[in-house]
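Possible regression after last week's pipeline update?

I re-ran a chain I had predicted before the update to compare outputs. Posting the input and the new output here so someone can diff against the archived version. Not blocking, just want to make sure nothing changed silently.
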Amino acid sequence: MGCPGKAGQAAPKPAKAKPLTVEQLAQLNGVALFGVPLKLNKGRFTVIYPGAGEFDKGFVSRSFGRGRMFSKIADVKNISHRKLLIDGHSKGKATLVGFLAGSALSRFDLVDDYKISFRMRIPKLDARGRFAFLLNHQGGSFVQSNFFQDIIIAATKTKVRTKDKRFASPAYRWFDKGPQGMPVVIACKGGKLSISIGVLNGKKEEMVEVVATEVTEPPPGKIGFNFQGFSFLISSLRIDGKFPRAWCEKEMAVLRKAGKLVTKMPEKKAPLPPLKGPAKKGPDLSKPDPEAEDEL
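New output (post-update):
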């Protein structure tokens, strides 16, 4: 007998798969865009950098003079360097090691509001040490913070220093040089930029806002830092923020043109078939085990 239906009628075509959204494509291509897998939730993204070389995929780093930077912690072979910076580090997972002098700038942009958090271990620091964290980097325009105790807006020549006397003196006098490092949180929300660090209150670590100010120009962009005159370990680098949709679309267009854009969701693995045969029965715990009694 023939199939039911009108003669010559073609079988229904399978429904076309819906095109992936920008967010789905960004998650599939997170490593190509940010250097690490991308997590998205309700319009916000999160990236976390462990110390296996991922930092160099998300940032462009440079070393100066005798300086070196290692985003793959296993590549730090010098025993004295490992003893100074890595061994005994008690909190967080190492992300990056910097020696003497260097810089880094993100390949990606941040938008609107964001939060950058990490721990920084500096075992030795003196008056020669320099560290500048760069924010809202837009070519020649940027916002800078020196050792987290001020905020400088280059375009308007605005400089806001901390009013907290604990952090007003040079950083080598107050920066915690212990093995746990100092936690740092840099947050921008509603046009307000704030920088906080963690201080020990007895055995408890508390975050304290060091400096804050309104920043309208330049808008959020790339982030980075430069340093000179000391060595450090950054651990647990995490960046949260509003999903940079326009930047991702632009970069994914480049990947598509180069034939490197991942456009298919990974196939779901089929569940394993049930085991054949009767299920094995476990021991009857209601009855004594003669062998166990012999051992006793």
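Follow-up from reviewer: compared with the archived run. DSSP finds seven helices and 16 strands in the chain. Marking as no regression found.
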